[in-house]
Amino acid sequence: MSLNVHRIRSPAFQLHHALKKHYSVAAATKGTAKASELFSDEQRRQRENVGRIEKIEVRYLGLPHDTTLVMNRELSTPYDCARHIGEKYCQQSALALLDNKTPWDMRRPLRDSCTLQLLNFTAPEPHIANKAFWRSCSFLLGAVLQASFKPEAGLFLHSFPKPNGEYRQQPHLCHRLRSLTSLFPLLFTVKSGSFVHDIVLVEEHWNPTVSELRALSIAMVKLAQKNLPIERLDVSSELALEMFHDNPYKREQIPSVAGQNNGQVTVYRVGEHVDISKGPMMGSSGLLGRCTISVAHPVKEGSESGKHFYRMQGVALPAVLRIGHFAYNILENRSRKLNPAKLPNEPFEDTVAEQVA
After folding, report:
1. H helices within 99-209, ranges in order?
2. Which of 23, 60, 254, 314 is deepest in the core (most CB within 10 A)?
3. Do 294 and 192 touch, CB atoms closer than 8 A?
């Protein structure tokens, strides 16, 4: 699937040329549109089944000051709470923390009275929010891939493993990347150096060009600029099988996922793209900042005629983080190394916790 773009100079035309030849610029395939429709129907049904509205007390702890909010059980979300506190908390909060111990999606309804903290990427200890960020990047990459490839590519999204590390303090790297230390006390890196999405293609020797990878990177940035909400929903395994009826790999995974979650499957949606994930994830695509899709590694083991595995990898930063070209180039180079997380060809039942983030 290589492209000859040596004579193309305009980045905008280059992107269009790449997408025109091997990718589709359609907003969503028929399958993703159907899954999104089922998501909306089930979301509506669950809201209607709440019945009589009960009140809960949410004790918010944080800036500008602690306060108690009276919200609606099973309807109000941390995002709704943030709207009462201030608009900037809606825009900056990536995740909620309930009762000082439970990470919670910003748009997930609250079940009981609780304490609430809003987490962002500039806090002194951002590791909880950053794990959600890394997972969300994999999810958003799936959305971009699903919308980009033409049907003849035979694309199937397989899975994206959980982050095998976390954003952590790296004093020795901070010494090298001095542009970071003046802005943030932590250097945002992960042990693996990349986020991942494993896919299946018909093409056996797909080696994307720099221009093709750049096209996918630009598509990620455009998705971020749309600032779309990332929504969570717990559904039955039967409904999940219907949502992913056209993806044999997802259908194979669903029984194992449901078996470890009381018969439920957690799905997320951004735009019309729906995928399986344990979560939690950040509240919107707009929290994604600088992003590079850096490499596609072929996974030979498990591949067969017409079904070839690839590990797509990338690196990204939260929108609030700004670093120089030299520092970011180091992160890009590191992200090209093969991510050692569980591979898609390994037995799913034995590694479901690692393969589904």
Report:
1. 127-148, 171-176, 178-181
2. 314
3. no
Under a CB-based contact definition with an 8 Å cutoff, are residues 344 and 138 in contact?
no
Q: What is the largest CA-CA distance in the chain?
A: 65
| Interatomic CA distance for residues 291 and 314, integer angstroms | 7
d(CA 24, CA 151): 8
How far apart are alpha carbons 41 and 36 in whole angstroms?
9
- Inter-residue contact 200 to 156 (CB < 8 Å): yes
DSSP character for 339? P
Pairing of strands 195-201, 230-236: unpaired
Please give the pLDDT value at position 32: 81
Q: Which of 250-253's residues contact partners 24+ apart within 8 Å by CB, and which partners?
A: 250/157, 250/276, 252/348, 253/159, 253/348, 253/352, 253/355, 253/356
Indicate whether 347 pLDDT > 80. Answer: no
Alpha carbons 85 and 93: distance in angstroms, whole number? 12
**Nearest by Cα to 166 from 135, 196, 144:** 135
Each residue's pLDDT tens digit, 185-244 = 344 445 678 999 999 999 988 999 999 999 999 999 999 999 999 999 999 999 999 999
Burial of 175 (0-12, 13-18, 19+ CB in 10 A): exposed
Query: What DSSP string describes 140-155?
Result: HHHHHHHHHB-GGG--
97 to 58, 61, 114, 153, 196: CA distances (angstroms) = 12, 10, 10, 41, 25
Q: Which of 59-73, 129-143, 189-203, 270-284 has the lowest mean pLDDT?
A: 189-203
